Amino acid sequence: MSSIPAKVKKAVFPVAGLGTRFLPATKVLPKEMLILGNKPLIQHAYEEARAAGIEEFIFVSSRDKSLIESHFRPHQQLHQTLVARNKTAELASLQGSTVDEDKLSVIYQEQPLGLGHAVWCAREIIGNEPFAVILPDDVIVGSSCLAQMMEAYEEVGGNLVAVENVPRAETAKYGVVDIGFDDGRLVSVKGLVEKPEPAQAPSTLTIIGRYILQPEVFGHLSNAGKGSGGEIQLTDSLAKLIGAQAFHGFRFEGRRYDCGTGLGLLKAGIAYAMNDNGADGHLAEFMKDQLKSSGIGQYSLR
Ligand code: G1P
Questions:
Q1: Is the CB of 175 inside a 6 Å radius of any atom of ligand 1?
Q2: Which fold has domain 10-260?
Q3: Which residues touch 280 (CB under 8 Å, ≥6 apart)?
Q4: pLDDT digits over 94-104, tens only?
């Protein structure tokens, strides 16, 4: 890139989904409010964006998921009680979940028409500038994935998606990259296919829920028809940018957990607890006991 790309200041968080895979837990509780460590999933996503320098947070939500935005609003009564009781540590932990009124927008996706439609719903707030998209289901443990992407974006500009390899049998769960040049960290994207069957997938390198995109994608989203699963897919409109704008896949550092499934959320929870100095000794002991009593791994644990 000859010129410095425009700074990315806004991030879109598509959070309108029904969370059916977690029913009955998500009957009234938004799946983004499920707990990982001591925070809901959406706060992990928010903190990752903040660590990447994002200044404006846009939730594309549904009307019955107001708990999500409530979580980020000040809670005066709780605040006053904690002050009166001199609970300094608790007050500090509350601070991380409070976003200034003018930095947080909520837009409603009135119909569940797909991820492409959800992102399109944010077009007026984004305007004519590059923006990030974070899917809170994909949790990346380690340093902020979006911050890593911002560094790469400063080098290459254009559009950037986080990517990782998955087993070929799983390509039908992801957007898959047709790989051009590959330097190990950055991959030039020749094509993108949403949820191909393993035999049709151009590679096993898949999109993970982190994107830095140029506003031109909205033009394609405005005209987008239904794609995979009968939904308006973001990947289909991204594919139309290839050739017209720079488009790269970025292999991030850190481990990704699919917290859209119970097992993924549980694994991420264990990873978080193991990283937490206070918990790792206890948890390791507990897990050893569990493995021993179920007869699994008795040799490898010696
Ligand atoms: C979405 C995207 C897909 C991407 C995936 C990452 O799919 O459409 O391209 O690979 O997120 O998690 P979803 O998981 O919403 O079906």
A1: yes
A2: Spore Coat Polysaccharide Biosynthesis Protein SpsA; Chain A (3.90.550)
A3: 273, 274
A4: 888 899 989 99
